[in-house]
Amino acid sequence: xxxxxxxxxxxxxxxxxxxxxxxxxxxxxxxxxxxxxxxxxxxxxxxxxxxxxxxxxxxxxxxxxxxxxxxxxxxxxxxxxxxxxxxxxxxxxxxxxxxxxxxxxxxxxxxxxxxxxxxxxxxxxxxx
Amino acid sequence: xxxxxxxxxxxxxxxxxxxxxxxxxxxxxxxxxxxxxxxxxxxxxxxxxxxxxxxxxxxxxxxxxxxxxxxxxxxxxxxxxxxxxxxxxxxxxxxxxxxxxxxxxxxxxxxxxxxxxxxxxxxxxxxxxxxxxxxxxxxxxxxxxxxxxxxxxxxxxxxxxxxxxxxxxxxxxxxxxxxxxxxxxxxxxxxxxxxxxxxxxxxxxxxxxxxxxxxxxxxxxxxxxxxxxxxxxxxxxxxxxxxxxxxxxxxxxxxxxxxxxxxxxxxxxxxxxxxxxxxxxxxxxxxxxxxxxxxxxxxxxxxxxxxxxxxxxxxxxxxxxxxxxxxxxxxxxxxxxxxxxxxxxxxxxxxxxxxxxxxxxxx
Lengths: 128, 363
Fold this sequence. Notes:
Order of helices and strands of chain A: EEEHEEEEEHHEH
Largest interface: A-B, 15 and 18 residues
Number of helices of chain A: 4
Strand content of chain A: 25-35%
Radius of gyration of chain A: 13 Å
Helix content of chain A: 10-25%
Distance between the termini of chain B: 42 Å
Oligomer: heterodimer
Helix content of chain B: 10-25%
CATH topology of the largest domain in chain B: Gyrase A, domain 2
Strand content of chain B: 25-35%
Number of domains of chain B: 3
CATH superfamily of the largest domain in chain B: Probable tRNA modification gtpase trme, domain 1
CATH architecture of chain A: Beta Barrel
Number of strands of chain A: 9
Largest sheet of chain A: 6 strands, antiparallel
CATH superfamily of chain A: RNA polymerase II/Efflux pump adaptor protein, barrel-sandwich hybrid domain
CATH class of chain A: Mainly Beta
Structural class of chain A: alpha+beta
């Protein structure tokens, strides 16, 4: 059974946001990494790139398929998880921890209101 | 369309396989992970349910002449139990399907075709049987098929299934009487490893599957790793590297097209392609980056699109992003620098041989 970490914000397309002050740490949920299978490549934006809620900002690739990453919130990329370049499997091993993908400076925190909490996300997964 | 189920469907579900449609069937893509299953076949042994493949038996006084008419390889005076790989082509050289032809006896051939092409192939074979004294019998509903693949395959089929196949050389077949039926067992496969393909009744295939899984000597493997395994060693998949628009010559499979045969469907067109050259060729491309080229992505050179990716992966055995691609023949020379469009970026790559891992056949 996929882990759903409480306290995070989740999107319907299975990205999460962990909010620390004005920074949002974005990754994909444990449910999503499980559905993808072995992650072999992560296509990430660069520092200072702007991402826009609802638009793709990269992709996570498993052996079999590429899956777009959809930005759950808007903001400026302040850090990308460079460890994923050599160890994309961190997403499989620890989606909410070492498998984070990017950190952004949130441009509009009210966008978080459109996302789901853990309980709502769990229900969303159960209905897929 | 409702997908068909193989005789092992319930066993895949019970093993918790990820199931997905392929070639008109609902098939297991993976049981544990594509990585684990891929390496099991490269290092030990794996078993695949390939019961979705189609089988056709061709017998009759003109069977050899008929097979030579519809098939690009040459079965003339072949020894009994030899197997041939080749294609059926349209008159314009486009590919109907790629197939295996087993010579079971004098004027008696067992033909194995791709699941997705069964209806089309059988119709094509029937249509082109006019004027030949042959019986073309579609047997896909009778046969189930297992592929036992990997360096330990020979001992696994001997010890677990009691099938003595040590004397079979690569691309030969034998029949084995077992449990009151005649099995067809060949030393063939689609992984680049040693291995066997076993054709039998649904009842036999179900019991053989259970024995193989229970033995622990053999990992259940899905179509996910079947594709990564075949891709790495440069084997084509119909629909990707071969199609009605992609001839065997374009795909670099000329060695299976015997133009010295006096006649077969597509011969003139293929002979012309061989002598005059083709405008598109299938090549391998190795990327410098880890981004993964996928089917349909554009290949670019000199600022213009020169073709597209047919299959691509991050190659599991050699840790490189590689693909096969059908491109403008002008750029097909080894070492040519090209680019591949992957989402919003382009990535540089080099044309290489379309074999990314060495086969380990037992010849």
